[in-house]
Amino acid sequence: MAAVELVTQGTAYGLLIGLGVFFCGVILIAIKVQKVYLSEDSGTSEMFMVANRSVGTGLTASAVFSSWMWINETVLSAAMCYRYGLAVPLWWGSGLCFQIALMAALGVMAKIRVPYAHTSLEITRMRYGWIGHVIYMVLNLTNNVFGCASMILTGSQLINGVSGMNFVAATILIPLGVVLYTAVGGLKATFLTDFLHTAVALILIIYFTLSVLTHPEVGGLAGLYDKVVATASENYISGNFEGSLLTMKSKGAIIWGLILKFGNLALVVMDTAFWQKSFASEVNSTVPAYNLAAIAVFGIPWGLGTVIGLTARALHHTPIWPTYPVDITTTEVSKGMVMPYLVKALLGESGMIAFFVLLFMALTSTVSSSMIAVSSILSFDMYKTYINPQASDRRLLGVSHITVVFHAIFITGISIALNYGGANMTWIGYFRPILSCPGIIPLGLTLFWSRQTRLAAIASPVLGFFTGLAIWLATAKSMYGAVNMTTTGEELPALYGAIGSFFSPALYSVVISLYRPYTFDWREFLRIELAEEAPTRTSPPAAQETKVEGVYISTDASPTSTPSRLSLDDVRHPFTEDTLRKLHRWSWIAWAMFVVLVLITFVLWPMPLYRNYIFTKSFFSGWTSVAIIWQFCAFFAVVVYPLYDGRFEIAKGVQGVLTSSRELINRHKS
What we know:
The protein is mainly α. Helices cover 71% and strands 1% of the residues. The chain crosses the membrane at residues 12-33, 54-71, 91-110, 130-153, 165-184, 191-210, 253-275, 287-312, 352-375, 396-418, 430-448, 455-474, 494-515, 588-607, 619-644.
């Protein structure tokens, strides 16, 4: 039960169910318009899983941004700023963008090496056989399921905290509406809903930032600074320079930032959803779209986290605070209750409804993306590979629909179990890197190092996980004398465990690979076929050509011409030499962007400020103003630009609807 009821249970139930039904209806209508007027039918597995590899730059950027704008980037960034000061939001922003830039480089290399892949696991199966395939399938599934379940857990705990709604009821209702449009519409539906979620969420983020900052109790940037300085003695932060909230020299913030970077890196690279979005994007869209999203997402935790976290620190001992005179507890901070308490204090009932909508946007975006990713793994990598290799496209699509529903039920159960096990978003943030990091380097080497052997790829992530786990638990025992939810939720054991999980597989992989050297022939990857080209159909279609980004790709599906039946000497890349040159150029651009982002956000920007310095009023005002401007730039990048990028498709769809409406009206008149 909520300590203080910020929203009535009736309002919470109404919002959760109503928003689910509304967005489900909007997306299903959009899917119908796509099918009828844009000839985009989600009734094929290729469209369901990778959207026919035809998604443009704007929509891809919006979808990647939305998939990465979890509850953590809004609610938890504010809570951690409350805990450690303004250093956290900047470290949080830097901990979001570099992974997306890295995924751009991996995505474009995947297009070069494996142009017809549907999931990252197909790549591991082709190179390492069924054992390697199963190992990475487990790593991907645990990363997806654990990440998605943790977000549902976080959302359910927040809903329970603000309204007193039964936790189990909230956990069941969150994924309910998402199941229908995801099962029907597939990946393109998640792209569309990601865009809607992004638009609504960014409007609300800007609204919260400006409304809180300009509230009379805060008094703008100058007023916020004065209040934080005035309450400095009662808000002393151990580990910060002079205990100040207004310094970048914060031990707790930098440790949290490092843990976050490891965890987020795993969530991107080991999440099939991000690979699928790169497979689904057009040839020339992957790198621009991912880097646009990477730059845009930086400003979300930076601006919102700074304003909400510091304002909460300034006001949590005043009569307007909802729990006054009782202070917010450490447990409530860990559950993310800082932002809803502040919103209730300053913006009242209407603000809480807006907060609920923001919460819903972040949750359902994460869930829909995870559903498609897990569905693709279970249907394509498990069912078609090991259970029914002769499955037709229609059968495969049916299995995909079933697995979407199964995944929703499964993650609901996992979320409930995590809650009753005592987990919260902070503990999960510490544990996740240890679980998910071991596969990152071996998976990357799968595309970039031809000498990584099968044994190395299979053994190194397993050994890496146990290495990280042992370091985590042993450090907790050594430093705090016990191993339990409290000691394993401390910062240093989690950081050391994450370092072990991430770096040790690189050592294991190199040593094992050098023990029995082997060189992989990259042409093997060209044997992966489009889903509907599998030579299992009873009546192969005639040869035809499909145009993708000005490149004609042969789709001759006759049994004598499929890549799996050709020798390596006869296998030809489906892209022309000109397209491959463009992709290699994009690869260099992607790596350059990755290096630049890492240098700026890890070194050149934060490190000079990590010194004995407390922000002055003018510096703080400039710092926060830039963060707010960044939010508006993000809005134009991932909301306005996708509308411009897809203007012709939008116009075609609107024209089709209007024409059909006029015809229907005329028939009724006659």
